[in-house]
Amino acid sequence: MTTRGFALIFGVVFGLVGIAGFVPSLVTAVHGPHPPLAVETGYGLLLGLFPINLLHNLVHVLFGLWGLIGSRSIVASKFYARSVAVIYAVLSIAGLVPGLDTLFGLTPLFGNDVWLHALLALIAAYFGWLHREVGPASRM
After folding, report:
1. Separation of alpha carbons 19 and 29, rounded Å
2. Angle at which helices 74-94 and 54-70 pack, to 10 degrees?
3. Per residue in 32-57, is it b (16+ CB within 10 Å) or e — as a string?
4. Can you state the angle between helices 3-20 and 54-70, rounded to 10 degrees?
5. Origin, by domain of life (predicted)?
């Protein structure tokens, strides 16, 4: 897979996940000890696993659009991959810190989001820094 392919796939997946967060049948109510949020609109668990709210969904949609735009060139897709790697690594760490695990009450970053954000950061880091393009894609 090329870095442009990575950006395209991540863009599509982020966009679909962001949209899925707005589908009530895919979101269950939070249960158990979850921190309160200042923005409780759409607060729930996507697929019963991942804490989300309105802002979380909008961020996913924006990352999706960014990925689609970034997939148009190798330079933009590398920038996208590196940005996703850094941002999602920071979000993963923030999800482990009390107070930061809700990004100051704005959006949930705790629970299953921690390992998912770490995994996304690792994949993006590979395509941002380690992956080498071969063939025609490397000249774009």
Report:
1. 17
2. 160
3. eebeebebeebbbbbeeebbbbbbbb
4. 150
5. Bacteria
